[in-house]
Design brief:
CATH architecture of one domain in chain A: 3-Layer(aba) Sandwich
Oligomer: heterodimer
Radius of gyration of chain A: 35 Å
Distance between the termini of chain B: 148 Å
Structural class of chain A: alpha+beta
Number of strands of chain A: 13
Largest sheet of chain A: 10 strands, mixed
Order of helices and strands of chain A: HHEHEHEEEEHHEEEEEHEEH
Order of helices and strands of chain B: HEEHHEEHEEHHHHHH
Shape of chain A: elongated
CATH superfamily of one domain in chain A: Brix domain
Number of helices of chain B: 10
Strand content of chain A: 25-35%
Largest sheet of chain B: 2 strands, antiparallel
Helix content of chain A: 25-40%
CATH class of one domain in chain A: Alpha Beta
Number of strands of chain B: 6
């Protein structure tokens, strides 16, 4: 739609298609993710982002070039790159004396920063250090959030939503039971520590239909520390969370259920036409022959008068 | 009694072989099965977390995963292409979108008018039979230009036109003018949709020689185009202000008349029928005095 609203028309069909693909749609696909390096990224942040990139792989891009910028001061580069790559979430790694092993997770809305959360990677064990079988790429993981802090702290609340956005992959309608083999666990303490762990699910027999779950750690395992945050204003966040009209369930009017669960409907009747109402026929209300004659005469007279008027008009 | 005990024993042994799938939690764990998410708001065991972090986290994750997957396994299953799948309920966590919800495209001026008038777009056939060429010619696009060229190998110069004019050139310029007009209208529509104020277009240059009316309009517009809207400009002895249709709108500072809104089809029909009725029901007015006088006059002459 905005393609038509552009002042400069796309010159080629291919160009037009590319622009159309970038247009906002009512139902969006999985969000694309960008990983990039800030000023002086450390080996740890580089590896960490690469690991997360591996977890997110089909919907992510890893940019290995160093960028001399500080996202919390000027995020225009992120906005520009997100626009270019049509991405909506990003991760930036940097390292300084003041903020060692700094990771910034964030997302954009309409190519502008929505929120950014800075985390320090205190401890980190890479995926490659766990010597075992990994999960298939592109699999939908189970997400676990442990600890009451996720709901009490406003920053953590947003971080929980951000992590869900990061790793939930895509809205699906059906899922293969055997394909449930990856768990991401996020545990938050009151002091702002966040433990990120990743496990592979092993389904064991339990003598029942539901299997017994065993877990095997596959990495990466990261201990984050919450640092600075830059959260979206309530207005912007509300606008970003807007559900398009196409997806809203259509409300059925005038249907309710009572305490016993039986369906009740309210019907609206039109206005009743009393003149056409069939009342009881009675001999006393019948017209006499004289009355009927009079009525016929009246009708004839009226007809004649109408005809005469018509002839007059024509003449 | 012995048999019962035996069976119970056997069952117990069977059960011992497997580890339990039931997990006890102090507070209920919240689930969002649609996104495969579980939120455990129970307090963490700080002592264990600090001393034996990894093992504690793994056991915690195992318990919560067990709870989550117990819920998933309860869902109705289906078989799709040799795989057993479960149908997930719609997710309850609301995640922000990447781009804003698309707005419907604003209507163009013509579309607005057509909607008000109830004009529907008629579908035209892509090919049309050309009597002259005796073949099907596309309405536009591929092969249309070639057909046009074949058809117009000769163009007659009409009688009212200078015989030396190049009709091909004329046709081409007409076409390019149409394209330019279309483009201008497209831009105007965009400007209207974005609520951008565009400068009013001055006098249209229709030919190399402007008419007296156009010149008068141009002079009036130029005079009024000062900061004080031409209030302090001197006037010539017999100067007249330009008048005519559409001139008023061009002069800066003049109040613009508001256009009447486009009537609805019903209103328009009613109005037209009223006019028709007025005409049909017209009766000649009889001036009795005049008629009598005339009658007397004719009689006297006789």
């Amino acid at each position: 739609m905005a393609v038509i609203q552009r002042i400069k028309k796309p010159t080629t069909r291919k160009g037009k298609k590319a622009l159309l693909a970038k247009e906002p749609k009512p139902i969006e696909g999985p969000k694309q993710c960008l990983f990039m390096q800030g000023r002086n990224p450390s080996e740890r942040t580089r590896k960490l982002l690469k690991d997360i990139y591996n977890l997110k792989k089909p919907d992510a891009a890893y940019l290995s070039r160093k960028n001399d910028f500080v996202p919390f001061e000027d995020a225009s580069l992120i906005e520009k790159l997100c626009n270019k790559k049509d991405a909506a979430i990003f991760g930036v790694g940097s390292h300084s004396k003041k903020r060692p092993h700094n990771i910034i997770f964030g997302r954009t809305f309409n190519y502008g920063i929505l929120d950014m959360i800075e985390l320090g990677a205190d401890k980190y064990k890479a995926m490659s250090e766990f010597q075992n079988v990994k999960v298939l790429a592109g699999i939908k993981p189970c997400l676990l959030f442990n600890g009451p802090a996720w709901d009490l702290n406003q920053d953590l609340k947003r971080l929980k939503c951000l992590f869900t956005d990061y790793f939930h992959r895509e809205k699906v309608e059906t899922i293969r039971l055997q394909g449930l083999e990856h768990v991401l666990s996020f545990t938050a303490t009151d002091s702002g520590e966040i433990y990120f762990r990743s496990y592979r699910i092993l389904l064991k027999k339990s003598g029942q239909r539901t299997p017994r779950i065993e877990l095997e750690e596959i990495g990466p395992s990261i201990d984050f520390k919450l640092r600075r945050t830059k959260l979206a204003s309530d207005d912007l966040y509300k606008e970003a969370c807007k559900i398009p009209r196409e997806l809203k369930p259509i409300k059925k009017k005038n249907i309710s259920r009572d305490a016993f669960g039986s369906k009740m409907g309210r019907i609206h009747m039109g206005k009743q036409d009393i003149n056409r109402l069939q009342t009881r026929k009675m001999k006393g209300l019948k017209k006499t022959p004289e009355e009927r004659k009079q009525m016929l005469m009246n009708k004839k007279k009226a007809k004649k008068a109408a005809k005469a008027a018509q002839i007059n008009d024509v003449a | 009694m012995e048999i019962v005990n035996e069976i119970l024993d056997r069952e117990q042994k069977k059960a011992e072989k497997y580890k339990p799938i039931i997990v006890d939690k102090h507070l209920e764990v919240e689930f969002d099965i649609g996104t495969l998410l579980a939120y455990d708001s129970n307090d963490l065991d700080t002592k264990l977390l600090n001393s034996n972090t990894d093992e504690y986290l793994q056991s915690l994750a195992r318990d919560n995963t067990q709870l989550l997957l117990n819920k998933v396994w309860e869902l109705p299953t289906e078989r799709i292409e040799e795989a057993i799948v479960v149908r997930l309920p719609p997710p309850t966590t609301v995640l922000p979108r990447a781009k804003p919800v698309p707005k419907p495209r604003p209507l163009t001026k013509w579309e607005e008018f057509a909607k008000a008038k109830g004009i529907n777009k008629k579908k035209k056939d892509k090919l049309q039979w050309d009597e002259q060429l005796q073949k099907w010619v596309p309405l536009f696009g591929f092969k249309k230009a070639a057909a046009e060229k074949e058809k117009n190998w000769l163009i007659e110069v009409p009688q009212n036109v200078d015989p030396m004019t190049d009709m091909y050139e004329k046709k081409a310029s007409e076409k390019s003018e149409k394209v330019a007009k279309n483009e201008l209208q497209r831009l105007k529509n965009i400007a209207r949709a974005r609520k951008v104020k565009i400068p009013r277009v001055g006098l249209p240059v229709t030919s190399d020689k402007a008419s007296a009316n156009q010149l008068a309009t141009a002079a009036t517009v130029a005079k009024a185009s000062t900061a004080s809207l031409g209030k302090f400009q001197d006037k010539l002895p017999k100067e007249k202000e330009a008048r005519g249709k559409g001139v008023h709108e061009l002069i800066p500072g003049k109040e613009r008349k508001r256009k009447a809104p486009i009537p609805t089809p019903q209103a328009e029909k009613e109005h037209n029928l009223n006019v028709l009725d007025n005409i049909l029901n017209k009766r000649p007015k009889i001036d009795m005095d005049k008629a009598v006088a005339r009658h007397i006059n004719t009689e006297q002459i006789q």
